[in-house]
Amino acid sequence: MPYDADSFDGAIASLVLHYMEDWTQPLAEIRRVLKPGGRLLLSLNHPILYPWKHPGEDYFQRVQYTDELSFAGQAASLTYWHRPLHETMTAFLEAGFSIEKVWEPPYSKDAPEQIVPERIRERDAFLSFIFFDLRSAK
Known about the structure:
By secondary structure, the protein is of the alpha+beta class. The chain is built from three helices and six strands, in the order E-H-E-H-E-E-H-E-E. It has helices spanning 24-33, 49-53, 85-94, and strands at residues 8-14, 34-45, 63-71, 74-82, 97-103, 129-136. Strands 1-2-6-5 form a four-stranded mixed sheet. Helix 1 (24-33) links the parallel strand 1 (8-14) and strand 2 (34-45). The longest helix has 10 residues, at 24-33.
């Protein structure tokens, strides 16, 4: 990134990293531009989604997968990298971040019915995403 080291108090990476196999360079670069003690708020597809959508697959393996979706009647393919939770958290720690908070918010009950899978519409909670509040090493 075209920024000096220690330039920012905070950064946000929302639903970005799960599209990349290797997080080493992106996390190192974010860490480089954050001031010591800087905050990174990050969200990912929840790792439970992969085995839930692909029964019988091994949760503990890093694997690339593609979901075929439809947005407003247009077909789309989204390709992701699944990582088990322990691998995700290890990547953050190895990049020089501490993990301040992890949370798993449910989908909003106000979400349009057509975007919520029918099999979960009656649930009070469902794991869709996982959020991390990280701090750069001081």
